[in-house]
């Protein structure tokens, strides 16, 4: 994983298809287990346009599920 977390965020973004989105949103533990919040905190310390773009895409995709 890169030190800025962009690889992990990219992978999360790619698994959030319909099946992946349904799976991660089934329980709070699965949803809260992703590291996207840590990426946001890291962005406040070390700004990265690339990482911000990927994190926003993940949050947008997660918002497609009414359980999130």
Automatic annotation (TrEMBL):
<dbReference type="GO" id="GO:0030014">
    <property type="term" value="C:CCR4-NOT complex"/>
</dbReference>
<dbReference type="Pfam" id="PF04078">
    <property type="entry name" value="Rcd1"/>
</dbReference>
<dbReference type="GO" id="GO:0000932">
    <property type="term" value="C:P-body"/>
</dbReference>
<dbReference type="InterPro" id="IPR011989">
    <property type="entry name" value="ARM-like"/>
</dbReference>
<dbReference type="GO" id="GO:0006402">
    <property type="term" value="P:mRNA catabolic process"/>
</dbReference>
<dbReference type="InterPro" id="IPR007216">
    <property type="entry name" value="CNOT9"/>
</dbReference>
<protein>
    <recommendedName>
        <fullName>CCR4-NOT transcription complex subunit 9</fullName>
    </recommendedName>
</protein>
């Amino acid at each position: 994983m890169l030190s800025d977390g962009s690889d992990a965020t990219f992978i999360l973004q790619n698994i959030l298809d319909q099946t992946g989105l349904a799976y991660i949103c089934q329980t709070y533990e699965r949803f809260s287990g992703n590291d996207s919040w840590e990426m946001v905190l890291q962005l406040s310390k070390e700004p990265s346009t690339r990482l911000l773009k990927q994190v926003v895409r993940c949050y947008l995709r997660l918002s497609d599920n009414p359980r999130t």
